[in-house]
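Structure in, sequence out. Go:
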């Protein structure tokens, strides 16, 4: 059975009470340890190493489904939480990134092989390190041991459908819009270590609440009440996580405003350096100006996420109902 972020466990596609209760019960088994955030926060080296490996994972998977990258980074954080930084050397970090992507690709049953990953790694490094298959397999085994072979990761995506149903929006256009926007926020929030203070269900609830406040502010009080009344959710945790999500979303809006200003300039700006590469360009005032790598990343991920969840339907006033 192919792995699905929204339905991580086999035979749990229906949102009946037992399935939902079980997801909430075991979600902590699929997350980094409770002191992971504090450890990263206290050690600059660990934060730097994590950032470097995430950058490598993003480089090697930027042309693929963002779910694969998300799952690989999930494996990375859970591994680092259990094992810590083994060898903060360039070759070791590359091996860790390749192995996390390889495991995610196998879990999702993609046609993306270790050979493909190696080719991209060689290309990105201008001829960098190529690992033997046995070396990658040994690293994969080490990661699997740290994860206790729990590969069907329970993530915030696992709880989106439950909360959408809680809002009374199951299979509605409004629910699809909230789902799509919350997905963008969740993908983006994975890089922020502060979110690891919270359980996946709390992150999902907070992302949906922010999305509803952003897209349907008149309905926000209804959604907030639905979350607050949910027996599975700690209200204080949601409030704290919401503030983190708010910071992430606000930073995203700032990035977009900067990028819009850059796109209007006739002078190329090189300070917005990023690891995503693309041949796309846009024409401004008759002059072809290459997209900044940061804009390319945002456009690419938005296209992929939209493809994953379907095209966002147009928002109609008829969707907005009183509480």
């Amino acid at each position: 059975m192919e792995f699905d972020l929204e339905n991580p466990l086999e035979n749990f596609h229906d949102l009946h009470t037992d399935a939902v209760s079980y997801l909430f019960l075991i979600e902590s088994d699929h997350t980094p340890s409770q002191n992971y955030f504090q450890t990263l926060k206290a050690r600059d080296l660990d934060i730097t190493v994590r950032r470097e490996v995430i950058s490598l994972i993003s480089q090697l998977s930027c042309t693929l489904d963002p779910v694969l990258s998300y799952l690989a980074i999930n494996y990375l954080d859970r591994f680092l939480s259990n094992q810590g930084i083994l060898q903060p050397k360039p070759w070791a970090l590359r091996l860790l990134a390749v192995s996390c992507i390889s495991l995610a690709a196998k879990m999702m049953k993609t046609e993306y092989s270790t050979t493909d990953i190696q080719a991209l790694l060689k290309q990105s490094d201008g001829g960098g390190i190529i690992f033997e298959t046995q070396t990658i397999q040994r690293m994969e085994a080490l990661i699997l041991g740290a994860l206790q072979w729990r590969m069907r990761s329970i993530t915030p995506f696992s709880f989106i459908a439950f909360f959408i149903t809680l809002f009374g929006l199951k299979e509605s256009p409004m629910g699809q819009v909230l789902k799509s926007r919350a997905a963008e926020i969740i993908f983006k929030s994975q890089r922020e270590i502060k979110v690891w203070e919270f359980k996946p269900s709390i992150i999902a609830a907070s992302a949906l609440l922010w999305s509803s406040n952003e897209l349907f502010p008149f309905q926000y009080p209804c959604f907030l009440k639905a979350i607050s009344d949910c027996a599975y959710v700690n209200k204080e945790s949601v409030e704290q996580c919401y503030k983190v999500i708010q910071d992430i979303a606000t930073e995203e809006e700032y990035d977009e405003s900067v990028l819009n200003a850059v796109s209007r300039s006739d002078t190329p700006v090189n300070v917005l350096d990023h690891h995503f590469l693309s041949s796309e360009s846009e024409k401004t005032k008759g002059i072809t100006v290459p997209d900044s790598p940061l804009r390319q990343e945002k456009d690419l991920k938005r296209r992929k996420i939209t493809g994953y969840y379907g095209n966002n339907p147009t928002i109609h006033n008829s969707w907005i109902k009183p509480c």
